[in-house]
Amino acid sequence: MSQPPWQPITPAKPVRQAKEPLTRDRIVDAAMRVLTQSGYEAVSMRKVASELGTGPASLYAHVANKRELDQLLVERTAEQMVFDDPIDPARWQAQLKATMREMLRAMRANPGVARAAIGAVPVGERALRTTERILTLLKAGNVPDQAAAWAVDLIPLYVTAVAFEETVQSASDWTPEDVERFVSNLRTYFEALPADRFPLTVALAAPLTSGADGDARFEFGITVITAGLATLAPTP
Amino acid sequence: MSQPPWQPITPAKPVRQAKEPLTRDRIVDAAMRVLTQSGYEAVSMRKVASELGTGPASLYAHVANKRELDQLLVERTAEQMVFDDPIDPARWQAQLKATMREMLRAMRANPGVARAAIGAVPVGERALRTTERILTLLKAGNVPDQAAAWAVDLIPLYVTAVAFEETVQSASDWTPEDVERFVSNLRTYFEALPADRFPLTVALAAPLTSGADGDARFEFGITVITAGLATLAPTP
DNA sequence: ACCTGAACACCGTTCAAGT
DNA sequence: ACCTGAACACCGTTCAAGT
């Protein structure tokens, strides 16, 4: 099906130029593709460049270095977090937990990004929305200012660490069966320890090795942190 | 000063052989030296090998791969933690905090090891002592078994994440003045944000950027976690 | 059994030269 | 101004060959 003759031969708005110009956004897009498909380890300047059909040197006109590219991936992930639940002071603890769940969800959706996030100071536009939301919830719970400010550091630190731990496990080429076998071996190992020196490790071998399912462990963590923060509110 | 003639010419026990044989321990020693002197980034198979006057291939007879070497560095650090304070059930919360401080101390003493530790499952001999101590303290505080078991994961995760954050900051070639300037700029940035969208971030700009001193922030974290765990003990 | 040189398949970053 | 090829100084790991 060819173009009717009254159409201009050179299209006014080409859908795709022969060679799209490199931009920051296109670089981050490509990096994000590599990240979700092959994990953080695979995100190299060279791989991202070849994903864009060019050489690694070309990226340096738009991105200062690898660290800045990492930061941009973290920022992208923060943009995907949705906090639209209107704040209800009576439910601030439940809402704080839901906020942390949403943070973990977004990091899980971009496997490997936690590795880049764990050492990054969040200053981007959307990371600020997370900060603002946490502060609002803690103020609703009467948590003192300095405590709320520190919690803004503690909460993402915890969520990111959990996400990172998960990706370390899955990044190694272990099948779910391998993980299961490993956990099972670990329980046997704990149970066989000298009971005089490690009485509780032996006695609690089962619960110690039951947390591999992930979600229950994360729920425990956000419960502890939320309850701990709640104790900081002055009781009038 | 030459040897007196009645001394045997070939010494019975040479203080140092011309070429000491490679061992796991010597490799970890060398890696530890590189780690504390130049940080985690510098710990490569090649650098460790050249520290020992050999090539990288030689290490593979004693160490499976880089990941195993990382694990051994973490194990070394765990060995340096001292928990000899006899357990006093009445002071379990204070003692739990002291335990976390000791964990952080040991990681700080080996700058960069946190990076290796953050994705490592602690199974070594000495890491078990940490596990056993945390369990003992939580049992003293009547924390339920499953909660205590999960706390064994949560506590090292938090301490390691804090240590890692610190090394990321110091690993970049920033002087203390650079850090101070960065924090100061960040405060100014927060204060200049649109107050209608980020009211609390603007209002709390000062406390948000005051935590860079480190210790106070860590104290906050261990207080929140300890208080949170205490709420899990059934009140009889 | 342990050690080694050389090679393989990768990195991040720089820089002079092109358009 | 943006892009590129080529180079520099690195990685982890393997493997055949030596002792």
Provide structural commentary:
By secondary structure, the first copy, chain A, is an all-alpha fold. Chain A folds into two domains: 41 residues, Homeodomain-like (Arc Repressor Mutant, subunit A, Orthogonal Bundle); 148 residues, Tetracycline Repressor, domain 2 (Orthogonal Bundle). In chain A, α4 runs antiparallel to α11. Chains A and B meet through α6, α7, α9 and α11 of A and α6, α7, α9 and α11 of B. Chain A binds a DNA duplex (19 and 19 nucleotides) through loops.
What structural keywords apply?
DNA-binding, Arc Repressor Mutant, subunit A, homodimer, 236 residues, 11 helices, mainly alpha, Tetracycline Repressor, domain 2, disordered N terminus, 0% strand
Write the layout of secondary structure elements.
The structure is a homodimer of 236-residue chains.
Chain A: H1 24-38, H2 45-51, H3 66-79, H4 92-109, H5 113-117, H6 125-140, H7 145-171, H8 176-191, H9 199-203, H10 205-208, H11 215-230
Helix pairs in contact in A: 1-2, 1-3, 4-6, 4-7, 4-11, 6-7, 7-11
Chain A binds a DNA duplex (19 and 19 nucleotides) through residues 21-22, 44-46, 54-58, 60-62, 65-66.
